[in-house]
Design brief:
The relative contact order is 0.13. An eight-stranded parallel barrel has the order 3-4-5-6-9-10-11-12, surrounded by five helices. The protein has a two-stranded antiparallel ribbon with strand order 1-2. The chain has a two-stranded antiparallel sheet with strand order 7-8. The protein starts with 13 loop residues before the first strand and ends in a 5-residue tail after the last helix. The protein is 34% helix and 15% strand. With 325 residues, the chain is an alpha/beta fold. Helix 1 packs across helix 2, helix 2 crosses helix 3 and helix 7 packs across helix 8. The protein contains eleven helices and twelve strands.
Length: 325
């Protein structure tokens, strides 16, 4: 941990999840793929700075270092108990089969050394053959249509059993969301790519109308890409606004998402940037600035090409996203 970085002196605002009544901090820290020791130290630093919402997934391989960081944070006195944190994890596609959902969540809890999650999400609306060893490396014949009815019923069982307080989805289109809105326990959250270059206007309106909390990932998009057409940090509109306000482009993006009313998960293992992402609550973007950002040309970056196959259930991107990209 970097002792030169001071903790924030405020509490991150929270959203109430309608389907469970649970409070979720609107700004979360993404435990992205990385070396376990680096991930653990970054999480400890994030807790020290004031983050309380942590997002991981079985496929990231970061559940274990997150669990270790929570134990150490308690021992160091950074938090009094695990109950001060909001922990999200996700069901990977090879376990997206009705009979495998509860065991998959129990496995994640074992990795995290926790008794319960705050939120458990279906990572993608796709199933893979069970037992695939390389989770992110699979063949076309491994891609299967999801039996959403049985998978969602098992997700509801996870909540009823107390293994998670809330359940939700990730990377779901409006059409796919509609299929689970009639469930006994509707999804509390849909976590999707959302940033100034893909602002999800129609999906935001749909989720707001149906009591689903939209959570943004990739708020900064592909900030490290060399292509100016895909780079948030090289966008002239965002650079101009950032310079005028004395902020970073990243802060402009995070504040923009906050003013849209969505929750978000930000990912950085750099202490200064982690702190910058928290410093977006005591200033605002003007209506004129918001309009400039909302007028940025739109294109989706994370499109799920790995699930597209002539032999599989999704032969085109249009089919995967139900014509919504």
């Amino acid at each position: 941990m970097d002792s030169s970085l001071e903790a924030t002196c405020f509490r991150i605002p929270e959203h109430v999840l309608r389907s469970s009544g649970q409070k979720m901090p609107i700004l979360g820290f993404g435990a992205a793929i990385g070396p376990p020791i680096i991930v653990k130290q970054a999480i400890l630093q994030a807790i020290e700075l004031g983050y309380r919402h942590f997002d991981t997934a079985f496929v990231y391989g970061t559940e274990q270092p997150l669990g270790e960081a929570i134990i150490e944070a308690i021992s160091l006195g950074l938090i009094k108990s695990r109950d001060e944190l909001f922990i999200t994890s996700k069901l990977w596609c090879n376990d997206a089969h009705g009979e495998l959902v509860v065991p998959a969540l129990r496995r994640s809890l074992e990795n995290l050394k926790l008794e319960y999650l705050d939120l458990y999400l279906i990572h993608w609306p796709v199933s893979l053959k069970p037992g695939i060893r390389e989770l992110l490396v699979f063949n076309a014949e491994d891609i299967l249509p999801m039996d959403l009815g049985s998978v969602w019923s098992a997700m509801e069982d996870c909540q009823r059993l107390g293994l998670t307080k809330s359940i939700g989805v990730s990377n779901f289109s409006r059409k796919k969301l509609a299929d689970v809105l009639v469930a006994k326990i509707p999804p509390a959250v849909n976590q999707v790519e959302l940033n100034p270059m893909w602002n999800q206007k129609k999906l935001r309106e749909f989720c707001n109308a149906n009591g689903i909390r939209l959570t943004a990932y990739s708020v900064l998009r592909s900030s490290g890409t060399s292509s100016s057409s895909n780079s948030i940090t090289k966008n002239d509109v965002l650079k101009e606004i950032a310079e005028a306000k004395g902020k970073t482009v990243a802060q402009i993006c995070v504040r923009w998402a906050y003013q849209l009313g969505v929750a978000m998960v930000v990912k950085s293992f750099n202490g200064e940037r982690m702190k910058d992402n928290l410093e977006i609550f005591d200033w605002s973007l003007s209506e004129a600035e918001l309009k400039k950002i909302n007028d940025i040309p739109q294109s989706k970056y994370y499109r799920g090409e790995m699930f597209i196959s002539k032999e599989g259930p999704f032969k085109t991107l249009d089919k995967l996203w139900d014509g919504e990209i």
